């Protein structure tokens, strides 16, 4: 059942730091902030300990006391009272940008602190805007890290391409520095200047199937490697994971940050999530990804995002939470034999 990590990057004894991030500010549906609490209540900490890890869990991060910076009057998401340019109009469409920026900044510091102590941070979301923080924290500790992003969606809309202004569909545009520079230190965009830079060649996607038109253009323009469900169908998940690793980690020497949105899984497998899209990864395909990344011995950080216990019926919630815990265990070394 368990196989302790052969990971040589982490300190001994091998320690997981579980960060509960009950945050929903990057998207409009209530309930995703309850995901971490449900995952922990389902026994995740004990399950990870049974795999041979030490576990550090200091409770769930309290974001109630994180508020937008003072003296900034948000007018539809921008601190400028007059919206008179294309840039200002784009900024104005962003939902709760100051709150998202503040929360993600605090998450980045927490992930960085654990990573620099040689622990493996496992961040439980919460919505996927949090990855701006988790990946920034990883890159501060491991500047050569690569990111494997498992998702139905590309989450790479810029301030210009976003239709909704929901920042959970935008974290990678901030990490890849695809948005325009802040026009002034007072601009909302300046509140994201702390975000670390992830080079495009160190990002790979698996599971895409609902990609906005603007995002398709971004992926092509920046030559970002993405394996859609079409590729999973064509090659099989084993080959896809191998090709993904060959792209971002050709020498198998870079630390890996695995960011897993449960909506990558088919809704029949993980129904309780905010933006389900049919035709997703099977239960086994999702687990194989986690198992294969564990086998590299290079995993240094894991995100499990977008479990929303407020959506669907009680049995669907139980199913989604159970799958979420199971994915974490697979990434931390649980094996079938």
Automatic annotation (TrEMBL):
**CC per GO annotation:** cytosol; nucleus
Which biological process, per GO, is one annotated for this protein?
urea cycle
Q: Which CDD domains match?
A: Arginase
**Cofactor binding mode and count:** Binds 2 manganese ions per subunit.
Q: Which InterPro entries match?
A: Arginase, Ureohydrolase, Ureohydrolase_dom_sf, Ureohydrolase_Mn_BS
Q: In which pathway does it act?
A: Nitrogen metabolism; urea cycle; L-ornithine and urea from L-arginine: step 1/1
Q: Does the keyword Manganese apply?
A: yes
The catalytic activity of this protein is classed by the Enzyme Commission as 3.5.3.1
Cofactor(s) needed by this chain: Mn(2+)
- Per UniProt, the enzyme's principal EC class comes to hydrolase
Q: Which GO terms describe its molecular function?
A: arginase activity; manganese ion binding
This enzyme catalyses: L-arginine + H2O = urea + L-ornithine
Q: What keywords would UniProt list here?
A: Arginine metabolism, Hydrolase, Manganese, Metal-binding, Urea cycle
The superkingdom listed in its UniProt entry is Eukaryota
What family does the Swiss-Prot or TrEMBL record give for this protein?
Answer: Belongs to the arginase family.
Q: Which NCBIfam families match?
A: rocF_arginase (TIGR01229)
Name of the protein in its database record: Arginase
């Amino acid at each position: 059942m368990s196989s302790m990590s052969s990971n040589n990057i982490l300190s001994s004894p091998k320690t997981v730091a579980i960060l509960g991030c009950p945050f929903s500010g990057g998207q409009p549906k209530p309930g995703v902030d309850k995901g971490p609490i449900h995952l922990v209540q389902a026994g995740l900490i004990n399950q990870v300990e049974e795999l041979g890890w030490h576990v550090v869990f200091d409770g769930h991060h309290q974001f109630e006391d994180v508020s937008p910076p003072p003296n900034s009057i948000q007018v539809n998401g921008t601190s400028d009272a007059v919206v008179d340019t294309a840039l200002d109009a784009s900024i104005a469409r962003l939902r709760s940008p100051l709150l998202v920026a503040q929360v993600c900044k605090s998450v980045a510091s927490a992930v960085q602190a654990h990573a620099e102590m040689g622990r493996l941070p496992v961040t439980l979301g919460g919505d996927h805007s949090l990855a701006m923080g988790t990946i920034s924290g990883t890159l501060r500790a491991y500047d050569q890290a690569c990111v494997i992003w498992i998702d139905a969606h590309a989450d790479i809309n810029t301030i210009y391409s976003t239709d909704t202004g929901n920042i959970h569909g935008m974290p990678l545009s901030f990490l890849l520095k695809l948005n325009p520079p802040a026009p002034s230190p007072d601009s909302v965009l300046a509140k994201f200047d702390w975000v670390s830079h992830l080079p495009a060649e160190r990002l790979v996607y698996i599971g895409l199937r609902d990609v906005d038109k603007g995002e398709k253009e971004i992926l092509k323009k920046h030559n970002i490697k993405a394996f859609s469900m079409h590729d999973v169908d064509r090659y099989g998940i084993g080959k896809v994971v191998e090709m993904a690793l060959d792209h971002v980690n050709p020498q198998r020497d870079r630390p890996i940050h695995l960011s897993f949105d449960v909506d990558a899984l088919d809704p029949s497998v993980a129904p309780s999530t905010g933006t389900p899209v049919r035709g997703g990864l099977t239960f086994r395909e999702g687990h194989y990804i986690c198992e294969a990344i564990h086998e590299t011995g290079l995993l240094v950080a894991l995100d499990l995002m977008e479990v929303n216990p407020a959506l669907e019926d009680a049995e669907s919630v139980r199913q989604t939470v159970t799958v979420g815990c199971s994915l974490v265990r697979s990434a931390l070394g649980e094996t079938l034999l």
